[in-house]
Task: structure prediction
Amino acid sequence: MSIISLHMKHFETFFWAARLGSFTAAAERLNSTQSAVSMRIAELELRFGRPVFERLNRKVILTPKGEELMDYVERLLQLAEEMQERVAAPETISGVVRIGITEVIALTWLPQLVEVLHKRFPNVKSKFNVALTEEVMAKLHAGVVDLALAPCRSFEAGINAQSLGNVAFEWMASPLLNLPSGPLGPEELQAQRIIVLPRESFHHRSIEAWFQSKKVVYRPSDECNSMSVVALLTASGVGISLLPPICYQTEISAGSLRVLRTEPVQRLVEFFAITLPEKFDALNQIVANLAVEVSTFLKS
Result:
């Protein structure tokens, strides 16, 4: 039986079911239903006259012939992406792109990114998932999001990363605490109540590294998974925290937050648009390029 009657959607569904190991996960990735995924795979197997997946409870793994087919499908999808990039007009490109972002981006230039995306690619829909850095990266690897916009200092082999620029973080406190003008070091700040994001955040690791640079042991006093709430608690005089001035210029100008003069100086934090190595998903690269374009972070 000829495979000519198969559509690109059959091969795309096959790819994501194989990559994610589940029809349910493939349905979520394709913004479809599990029954639609099962039907496409059944039609594909009917056309090829053999199974391409072994079903193991709720998981699926490729058969030997399925592994063979995967090589062809990857090439086919990559060619389809190249064709779309070179030939298609922007207004004809459609689909859903799921983007994992950290709060610093949500508080700064995310609205500009959405505006530009809708203007240039009106048929593309975006779904944003705001989370801590480690959670964003875990969701990228699990296939829950297609693109991650997050800080990072090292990458695994094969990861695609485009710089979005650097962000400065500074120790801040409420003027109510009446802290000295400084410079203040880890020894001086050790005695203060320190408000942090959870351990799986880049924020927590940066604070830990700053104190360890002077071999000072510190214990966080309060923890919250929202940087906005951390800033609110800091402005209320509950404690001090490490915050990005780019997000809180209004509070700094109004005098509710004060930037402390500290030593050693904080390292700039570089943010990236991060995708996994599959090169055939044109939407991921489109949004990554737009993010690089609209980012207001400090460019080197």
